[in-house]
Description:
By secondary structure, the protein is an alpha/beta fold. The protein folds into two domains: 3-206, 3-Layer(aba) Sandwich (Rossmann fold); 214-329, Rossmann fold, CATH 3.40.50.40. The protein has nine helices and 20 strands. It has an eight-stranded mixed sheet, sandwiched between helices. Strands 17-18-19-20 form a four-stranded parallel sheet, with helices on both faces. The longest helix has 13 residues, at 63-75. It is globular, with a radius of gyration of 21 Å.
Amino acid sequence: MKRKILMIYTGGTIGMMKKYGSDTLIPFDFNNIFDQIPEINLIDVEIEFFKFKKPIDSSDIDTSDWVELGTVIAENYSDYDGFVVLHGTDTMSYTASMLSFMLQGLQKPVIFTGSQLPIGELRTDAKENLITSLYYASLYQNHRAVITEVCLYFEFKLFRANRTTKFSAEHFDAFISPNYPILGEAGVNLGVFPEYLHKNQQEFNLEPMLDNRVDIFTFFPGKRKDLLDSAVSNPDLKGLILRTFGSGNIPSDDETLWIMRKAKDLGKELVVITQCMRGKVNFGKYQNSLIFREVGVINGQDMTVEAALAKLMWLLGKGLLHAELKQEFEKNMSGELTSK
């Protein structure tokens, strides 16, 4: 039985090609994809396409686009065996992370991919990324999907989406998963590492309510304290992600500590993650993180900034606050953090 795959094009480099006789990039007509990539005809899948009305540069992606994308998948969930989402690379980890929370109880694969070079370029990476993503999206055993989560495929590697971050603007291997092993690797054989795959117990459900009244504050030596105070005092801000040093350290001067206590008094939701590419937050390892124990902030553990931002928006959108929000945030819901 041929597996049915819905390919969703949101925008991005992968969907562009040069206009004949010039260097101008124009959107690719996916109705002609079998002519451009005839190898797709060799894959034992049935492919249908959905395109956003207007292709979106990934730098322009907004929460409304995330909701639209999640809705498209949910509305077509019962009609397809898997989904491939074509997306610009710059914010792909943000979008894919958000979808990993919005699409709860997935029992089918959702594979994000893109490319560093347009599909019409001679040296493009788009063809391999696209073809192998289709393979992963159609991978079934005993009539059950092997992959039941939101993934990101790029340059021969299959990642858990909410563990990824883009780290190169120039190389084909543009993404890494700093704190979790890859889920699969495409070589001579199409490899999957089942011990690392996420399994869902509940039924599929779209949870699209988001609250974007959040921000990210990055500490650096010499940063003005009034900037932190302004962020905390902003009445329109409900949640603030703090990108701290090392294992969760911040300056220990009286003004910074006072602002942290002020944030708690104002009812702000504070999430602490580390600026380090690898590793996790560990309150109390050093004295400069003890303030977080005192004010009861949320421990983001080893989450990427993309996943932490998405999760905070999503939980706030569900109406969770304070102790309940902290409890739910620190749970491993979609494989986004390493359980204690």
